[in-house]
Structures are given as C-alpha cells and as structure tokens.
Amino acid sequence: MRRPLLALLLRAGILFFAHAAPASPRTWTDRDGRTVDAEFVRADAGSVVIRRADGREFTLSRDRLSAADLAFVDDQSAKPTPTEAPPDWIGPLNRALGQPLFADASLWDDPPAEVARRLKLRPESITPGYESWRAYLRRPVPLLDVPAYMLALRAEDARVAELSVLFTNRGDDPAFAALESYAIVPPAKLETFRAALAGDFEKIRATLGAALPKGSELAPSPAQKRANPGELALFTAGDHLLLVQSLPDWDLALRILPAERAAPPRLSDDQLRQRLRARVTRRDNADVILDRIPMVDQGPKGYCVPATFERLLRYSGIPADLYDLAALGGTGFGGGTSVSKLLESLERTVRQNGRRLETLRVSPSPATLARYIDEGRPILWSLSSTRAFNTLATAYSRERAALSGAEALKTWVAERRRLGSTLGPEPDSAHLCLLIGYNRVTGELAFSDSWGPEFAERWLPASAIQAVSSGELWTLNF
User: Fold this and answer.
1) What pLDDT does 256 receive?
2) What is the distance between the alpha carbons of residues 466 and 419, in angstroms, rounded to a whole number?
3) Containing H/E element for 462?
4) In the chain, at which end, N or C, are there fewer CB atoms within 10 A of the end residue's CB?
C-alpha cells in the first residue's frame, strides 16, 4: 500500500511557502512510492517546490523524486518565464531609499542572499530554515533622507521575511555618547532628542508619500496600533507593507514586511512542536545540541539581553526585534537591561502567540535540562559572565572541538572535571545566554552567546556552568 508523500512531510514538520505562476496539478511520487497531488512551483539544483490544492507549499529533495518527476521538472524549468512590466513605484522608491532594494514587483520571491548582496549586508546567521544579514554602520548612511545606523534582512524557509532599518535612536545619538548605563538624561538633551525623533519621523513619512502612488498611506488599525506603540505610519506597495514606527524617547525604525495576502500562515502548535523536535541534533559523541538557533549579533551597544530574547522568540515562531525588546526592557545607554521588566512586558505578546514563559527552578545540569533540549526548547540562562569564565570557555571549547569519538571525549573531560572550581560571580558582569545542549556521558552543557557566529556554541562541565549561574532559567512552553 502506498503511503502519501504529504503525510511524511507533515510528520517531519517541513512546510515551505513561496510565490509562483499557476500550473496544472499532477501526482508526484518519491523513490519509496509515496505520492502527493500538487502543482509545480519552482526548482533549483537541489530541491523542488510544489503547491497543494489548499495553497500549502512543500519543498522536496531532488534525490528523492522519481525519474518521471525529475524529467517533468527539467522540462518545466526549461520553459521561459513570462515577464511583466515593473510597477511604477519601484524606481522612485529605490531612489528614495538610496538602495537597489526592489528588482521587480515582489521582494518575497527574490533569493535572500541576492537581496543581501544588493544591500551589501554581511551574513549574521545561516541555519536551516532561518537566515539573516546585518550591518551596523559606524558612519550612518542616508535612507529616505534620514541617517540610518543599522540594516537587517531576515529570511525564513529560504524566503525573505523582513527588512528593518534603524534610524534615530538613543544608543547612537551623539548627544548621549558620554552617558553611562541608566544615567539620568539631562532635560535639554532629552528635548533635543525628542525633537529629532519627531522631525525625522515626519521626514520619512513625507519622503515615502512622495515616492509612492497617491493613496498608498494607510490608516493603522487598532490591532496594528496595539502591536506597534508610539507614532505609526503605514504605506503599501504591491505585496509590501512599509511600517514606520517612532517609539517615544527611544528610536525610529522602518520595517518592510509582507502584506497580509503575501504573509505565510502561522504554524500551529503541533507543527511547531514537530519542527523544534526535528531540529535536535544527536552526535556520535553523545552530544545533544540545538545547533540551528539563529544568531543575532547584539552589536556595539551591549544589547545582549534583547538580542538573546530575539533569538529565543524567533526560533520559537514569534516575530521579534532586539531594538523593540531593548525598549521594553528599559535598556540603558551602553547596555544594561532589566530582565524582570522585559519578561513582564513580553508576557502579553508571548501569550497572544499561544506560548508562555516558564520559570525553571532547577540547578543547570544534563539531568535537569535534558527534557527541554530533547523537545527542541532552548533555555534562557542568567549568569555572571566574567573574563575568567569566558577565557576558560573559549579555550575549553576549542580543544574539545578537535576531539573525535565518544571515548576520547569522555577521557578528556574526566581529566578536567575540576575546571571552573575557582569561578564565581563578579560585580557588573550580569549576562544572559541560551543553554542549547547537553552530554549525559560527560556531564557537560552547551551555551550560546549573542556575540556573533563564533560564539554560537561553547561547552563547559556543568559544575563550571553552575559556578557562575545566577539561579534564573526560563524557557517558552506551549
């Protein structure tokens, strides 16, 4: 009896979304005889995207398809693709942005890496199902006639999902350059900053209004106002929503998002559970690791807590941005975020997305954390990130990576179990990481810092982790 190919994809939690010209449905068969009725969407060197009658799209690996399917795909791929005249707004909007962002009528079907190249963005995170590129600009670049300090491009399931641009913000404003974390802002400087925020908001609004066709500006809905506090201006351009937001006393940002008709549907709880479990990697040396968590580089302003929260939320299917999170957590100039304030502020957003933040009252060890890692759930970990701790973690992880085989690792770790016995908390070293893995055989834990790709995975014995732990752990539940 043939098993449906679709059922296999759904059990694996693999769902992909794309845009394509309509085609006639046909029956697809893999090399094990599983079938699904769907239309061809597109193909590349390694995979084929198909669309079922209900609109859901799936990506199939070429090496699993039948010879007849591959012949059909090659025939379809060889056909010329009809071209349409670009919309009138593309040229004016690209000129207003000062960037060649739009190559055609839709940003959402462009290869994400190609969009990043057009914007000259560097890779920040490349993991299965999630990619991002980011640029922190030491010298701000004018976009929409206002200096921009940061650009970030995000892609999900090989599809561009969002472009964000940070403009006027208190972390980069020269008036605050000499202020320390949680410093009291002089009233004159605050008033100057508020005036700059208001003026730049109106300038961007006017520039977008002039670049886009009449009637492109939309009135924000009550739901949009709740989700985006502060001053808000919305514009539409094809399947793109341009959202300009000014957070009081904080920052000014532009986000380009898919319009509702172009946005992929939200994953159900079951789909998310399947996806997270499928992302657990089990290695031959007994490591169990979540090695596909997107990296978010906290940048030069010490936003470690907001960046780490963004990684957790995005990995769990909840949209997030580190600058919004910094505002919610009251992050000071140069860093310093109130975790409790951020947790309290996020509770409603997390709950609206069908999740909840769960406090773990355990000492971090493989035995206490294995159930969460096995379910694909990273753990927020509050610690004292001292120089001694980081020096040890970097050297230990580098030596560990050179070992091969479970026995060699077990012997090596046994000789180093006392490492970390001199570690302890120090003033002004509060930090937040993600605990992302464990090894029961060796008694080790893996953690990830939001400092860039080279800090995505580091290991230490659980005793060293416990020595610097602040005793606070959280994870998302659903």
Assistant:
1) 96
2) 12
3) helix 462-468
4) N
Show the tokens assigned to 360. 């773990």
pLDDT, average across residues 414-428: 83
Determine the straight-line distance between the first and last CA of the chain, rounded to whole angstroms. 36
CATH code for the domain of 29: 2.30.30.700
- What mean pLDDT do residues 118-125 have? 91
Q: What range does the domain containing 458 cover?
A: 269-477
Q: Which residues pair with 49 in a beta bridge?
A: 42, 59
Beta bridge partners of 156: 130, 159
Strands (E), 216-283: 217-218, 231-237, 240-247, 251-258, 281-282
Q: Are residues 62 and 122 in the same domain?
A: no
For position 5, what pLDDT does the model report? 47
pLDDT, position 37: 86
Count up the domains in the chain and report the number. 3
Q: Enumerate residues 6+ apart whose C-beta is below 8 A from 330.
A: 337, 338, 341, 342
DSSP state of 65: B
Closest C-alpha among 15, 16, 37 to residue 28: 37
DSSP string, 3-40: PBHHHHHHHHT--B--------EEEEEBTTS-EEEEEE
How far apart (Å, rounded) are the C-alpha atoms in residues 141 and 70? 47
d(C-alpha 22, C-alpha 12), whole Å: 26
What average pLDDT does range 249-253 have in this prediction?
A: 89
- 163 three-class SS: strand
Residues 6+ apart with CB under 8 A from 7: 34
Q: Which of 73, 11, 3 is nearest to 32 (CA)?
A: 3
Binned at pLDDT 50, 70 and 90, residue 10 comes out as very low
Mean pLDDT (the chain) is 83
Chosen domain end from 231, 262, 293:
262
Query: Hey, what are 372's tokens?
Result: 């969460």
Q: Is 84 among the domain residues? A: no
